[in-house]
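We now fix the convention by which a protein and its fold are recorded. The integers have meaning only within a learned vocabulary of local backbone shapes. The record below shows the convention in full.
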Amino acid sequence: MITASMSRDESTQQLAKDPLVGEMLGPYEVIARVAEGGMGVILAAQHTKIGRRVAIKLLRDDLVKNKDQVSRFLNEAKTVNRVGHPNIIQIYDFIEDWEREPPLVYMVMEYLVGRNLHEYVDAMSCLSADETIDIADEICAALVAMHDVNVLHLDLKPHNIFLASGDTSVREQRVKLLDFGVSRVFAEGQRVELTDPGQLIGTPKYMAPEQILGRPLDVRADIYALGLVMYKMLVGDLFIQAEEVGALLVEQVHTEPPSEIIAGDGRRVPPVLEKVVHRCLRKVAAERYGSARELRDALRLARASQTGKVAALPEGDATGEMTLRSGGAMRAAVVVLLVLLCGGGLWLWLRGGTGGNRRARAAGSGSASASGSATAAAMRADAAAGRTDSAAL
């Protein structure tokens, strides 16, 4: 992936670093080396015939000799294509060139322009509640798609969340999840068992407690990581400060976030959003949101509460569940409805049987069902009842 923050001097230095610059990898000419990770490097390349710009993720030479690493690399490509979602990086091809010396194993990926979330938060110091919700909403969309096909990411962190802008094929989509190198596929209704409990899978600063302890994992491990990502966006830092890995792991398992989250600009995070973050960060997985879809609904309700469309969470709501409370306008509507109902009942009584028949016919045609999320069901049921009674009049 190309980052918009790269200067011309930095780009020139990177061009000189990689011997593959100017070489052909299949139909692609390598233009620049733009990033380096634990498993390999990212190259910018272009299809010489059709002009398509791509990113090439090249497995490190020493890892190419390891069959397990090549298999893991291939599984990353398979996993991404198993999901196939606009908020997830696209992988177009996977190549194993064993005739070349040294052999090359690489995947051809979507070329993105922008920067990762870590760079963006560092540049901004912290993000507003609205922007945090917007970004988290798109991350949730990707997680919903992944979890629906039984895939856990297990390494969700700001470095692996890309904010695409400009020359991207999916202009309307801003967030892209990257790096599925440690992702796992789980059987329906089952949890992921890590094959080597003594080996850490993921990034300690963003790992769920059960992931650190080597316990079976489910979608709530990704939800915990997203809670930490949201905290990072809002505050600009994490509440876990240990640098040494052992101490960091202990803090991750035992240290709770502060009861009041103070944003990087010194203001308290809106309580409605604060409660969502707190629930994501429960140390016991069963106390978190049960799915990314449920979390996304809570975030959208938090956004609505910011605009005054719904009230905030009631104080003392330890679970972080969202509830709707009617305001003055709703109370006024109920009063008017009662008046109409009482007046209409008297009129119908005076009219006698004919009015009763009209009421029966109207009630049969004017009924409405209350559908949608459980949090809004009571309000919609009241509204539905109001429409039915009005029709009867």
